Amino acid sequence: MGGLADRILRLTGERPAKIGALHGGDLSDVSLVTLQDGGRLVAKSGPMVDREARMLTAMSDAGAQVPSVIASDGDLILMEALYEERAGDGSWAALGTNLRNLHDVTGEAYGWSEDYAFGRVTIPNATSGDWPDFWAANRLLTHVDHLPGGLAPRIANLCENLPRLLPARPAPALLHGDLWTGNLLFGAAPSVWLIDPACFYGDREVDIAMLHLFGQPGGGFDEAYGPLDAGWEERRAVYTLWPALVHLRLFGSGYRGLVDRLLSQLDV
Fold it and tell me: Is-annotated flag, keyword Endoplasmic reticulum (predicted)?
């Protein structure tokens, strides 16, 4: 176990009895740690985990249900270990309430105090008072130098038209920022935790769009979360384009079709 075990001992006062890899470690190393007294915790290491710890704290302060951060030490954070189960009765409604609590906390501008990253893909978070400008500069144009042929001019054309597609100043809600279904951890119903955040302040529809990227929320979510503004389904393609571009850069050409479809849907 070596160095990791020594660091856990220093941070917790207890030496691990066992350390095993957990799923979900595509962009960070994630381990389940069993301590000598039988207690468990999750160790996550990587260059951005200290920022993740600050995001989790901000989300917890907002009343969202997230894993508790036990300790943070540079490129290592220790979090409570949670028991995962299938979504059950009331789970999706609990998510709606959880997410609404998060989004009810608002900032003074769009963005975040620190940049973030998914692996080698940087997520700039420079603050702005204009939402279409923020989305263009920090979520779309930042990718154009890294895209295969033909996509860059289409992205640039879309960004010129964002002021007519997106609201200028929606409430700058506290967002999870990467809320696909794989970043939901369901416990004994109706418990659900939000994990692996990429927080920033922005239009709440960003998180809603992400929830529909590889599936859709289950029964009870819509009622618990509450109504969205008219036209949100049309705006969804603009917001889904960002994770599609990130996936294209991280995982390759298999996501080119998704990016093309979204741009075509947006008439660019």
Answer: no
